[in-house]
Specification:
This protein is of the alpha/beta class. The chain folds into 2 domains: 160 residues, Rossmann fold (3-Layer(aba) Sandwich); 121 residues, N-(1-d-carboxylethyl)-l-norvaline Dehydrogenase, domain 2 (Orthogonal Bundle), CATH 1.10.1040.10. 39% of the residues lie in helices and 22% in strands. The protein is globular and about 50 Å long. The structure holds NADPH dihydro-nicotinamide-adenine-dinucleotide phosphate and ketopantoate.
């Protein structure tokens, strides 16, 4: 049994905390108070009552810290680390994008495990989450990755190591960058059935592929159509986390999902006009 602290009790943090609490000692480090966790999963309603802390001063060292806030909340989330990190603690950064390690520069890279998660989940109230289907987790191969994978042995989440994490992260980014069409149209995954919107998604993914290849990811041309097909197969009412932030009036992970393609594209001299334009349009539709 491992001692695990999950920073963030949102869609991903709440779901992972509930699954891990079935066989580990789990503490949830939350910004807003909540009583317990109830996750509506495809197979059953999962309930858990982990220890819940709301004050970083009360945190004690654990074996694993799982950072599951949005990327724009990393600086605030880091306030939990001095209390949670002992000499052997590892930090798993479970966030979208391709810069997981860079977001927590205060932790040594060798103690940080970047995590790519595919687990569509939506928070409906504090501690109440709908998990749309069983999920997958990918981490870099090596001792730390293998130890992280072992935490999920008794869950429905298929966790694996990969020898090519760079490609795994960019493949996920290809899905995420195209998900901006949902936030712009305020329509869940079913919007991908609109052929005009699907063409926009393909163009976003093409830009992502060009930049990802320059960063060392092995991304096939067929990924362009695969992203559209994957979205069409998702639950039609599935709301991606960018769309969820937009409708809730929260900040958005625009830099981590589309801006990063523009930034790294500039570094390599690769034009990314569509990711740039749609991120600007979505940001402006707030102001
Ligand atoms: N949702 C999904 O289906 C998927 C999301 N992802 C990625 O996972 C990451 C997390 O997303 P998601 O779970 O959807 O995000 P949510 O917005 O649902 O949850 C984030 C949680 O972090 C909490 N938080 C923010 N700051 C702090 C802090 N300083 N201390 C403690 N808690 C804090 C928020 O608190 P509060 O309750 O006060 O808002 C919220 O509960 C993102 O990078 C996202 O892109 C990846 C795959 C799927
Ligand atoms: C692709 C998807 C929808 C689920 O894994 C996601 O990453 C998100 O909501 O941010």
């Amino acid at each position: 049994m491992a001692r695990i602290a999950v920073i963030g009790a949102g869609a991903i943090g709440g779901t992972l905390a509930a699954w891990l609490a079935q066989s580990h000692d789990v503490t949830v480090c939350a910004r807003s108070p909540l009583a317990d966790l109830e996750i509506e999963t495809p197979g059953r309603t999962l309930r858990a009552a982990p220890r819940i802390l709301t004050d970083p001063a009360t945190a004690a060292p654990v074996d694993w810290v799982l950072a599951t806030t949005k990327t724009y909340d990393c600086a605030a989330a880091a306030a939990w680390l001095p209390g949670l990190m002992g000499p052997d603690t590892r930090l798993a950064v479970i966030q979208n994008g391709v810069e997981q390690r860079e977001r927590f520069p205060m932790v040594a890279p060798e103690r940080t495990v970047p995590v790519i998660i595919d687990l569509p989940a939506e928070r409906t109230a504090p501690g109440r989450i709908v998990q749309r289907r069983d999920g997958t987790i990918l981490v870099p191969e090596g001792a730390a990755g293998a130890a992280f994978v072992a935490l999920f042995a008794d869950t429905v989440i298929a966790a694996e190591t990969t020898p090519d994490f760079v490609t795994a992260a960019w493949r996920k980014l290809a899905i995420n960058c195209s998900g901006i069409v949902s936030a712009i149209t305020r329509r869940p995954a079913e919007v991908a059935n609109d052929e005009g919107v699907a063409e926009v998604m393909r163009a976003l993914v093409r830009e992502c592929i060009h930049v990802g290849r320059a960063e060392g990811a092995a991304l096939p041309d067929k990924l362009v159509d695969q992203v559209v097909e994957w979205t069409r197969k998702a639950h039609p009412d599935s709301v991606n986390s960018l769309h969820a932030d937009f409708v809730a009036g929260r900040p958005m992970e625009l830099d981590a999902r589309n801006g990063v393609i523009v930034r790294l594209g500039e570094k390599h001299g690769i034009p990314t006009p569509l990711n740039q334009a749609l991120a600007a349009v979505l940001a402006a539709s707030r102001s």
